Amino acid sequence: MFTAAITGTGVFTPQAVITNEDLVVAFNAHADLFNAENAGAIAAGTLDAKPHSSADFIFAASGIEQRFVLDRDGVLDPARMHPSLPARPDNAPGYMAEIGLDAAQKALAEAGLTGADIDLVICAASNMERAYPAVGVEIQQLLGAGGFAFDMNVACSSATFGIQTAVDMIRAGSIRRAIVINPEICSAHLEWRDRDCHFIFGDVATATILERDEDLDKPHFKVKSTRCATQFSNNIRNNNGFLRRTHDQMEDRRDMQFMQNGRKVFKEVLPLVSKHIADHMADTGVQADDLKRLWLHQANKTMNDYIGKKVLGRVPMDGEQPNILQDYANTSSAGSIIAFSQNSDDLAVGDTGLICSFGAGYSVGSVIIERA
After folding, report:
1. Which tens digit of pLDDT belongs to each residue from 48-88?
2. pTM greater than 0.85
3. Ramachandran quadrant class, 70 (left: phi over 0; alpha: psi -120 to 50; beta: rest)
4. Domain at 222-371, CATH homologous superfamily
5. 186 flagged as catalytic
6. Domain extents for the chain?
7. Catalytic residue selected from 123, 156, 197, 356
């Protein structure tokens, strides 16, 4: 049995930014258009009018201040409220492969490796650009990597599930090095026309390099333990699968985009995640006082504050539980990796931290690491 370690991370951040104020102007204009077009039905009481949103409402509900997106104009068009990402020809790199490659190259540079050093590529994300061929195999070719590649979808937990998969293969000796890539184009599956969720997501891509610890003579994070768990729930759902298009392709159905029952998610996910982390720490022999850093899934500030307090037994101090939510919004599986990538260099040898992601499924994955 071998030991695995994280030796590099990379983050691709789109250039386009949408602030809460930008989004509110577009959404409110869309709401006015909708209400005018449906004035008769609204007056008759057969259809509800769309209420306005506000920057204060968004920040209070989520802690988000802005988000990065691949296409700004389409999202902010009141008549469209959806990104415009034209289909690319088959002989051109896909969107996910393009942004995933950028993050992967940054991670490889940090680890002092090239694509040829990689034995396994996992593309782990909440939505895939296509059914097949696998996006992971496309990225493998663009990187010049050997070995094999595949796609993985565990919603917002895809990154930690991908890390556990790579770690298990390294431990077993079937591979020496892997890269887990999380290209999250969340703007494409968000319902921007729904006031309750129109502000939640942003776009980004992250990458994490994992290697055998026994081979290393450079700074790294030893993976002490990983753990994943799932529990079926309909409270976060997206029905936009290829089977849905067999008979209602042109129908504008609300359930074809991101949907969630926020109240139930809060009530059910918070204790699930808190217990998962506590049990994982206990089984690994890690005490709350041992943790120097918590890198949590970046979905909602209130959720993270609750989990941090439960895990540590107190309110986290500045820097102990970094948030990047205010700048990136929810970036699905990539969020905890962004937080780790941007807030880990200061840890000293021997310091212990925990990466955790959670989301639809329900799913939760945690990775306990130690600076080495």
Report:
1. 999 999 999 999 999 999 999 999 999 999 999 999 999 99
2. yes
3. alpha
4. Thiolase/Chalcone synthase (3.40.47.10)
5. no
6. 222-371
7. 156
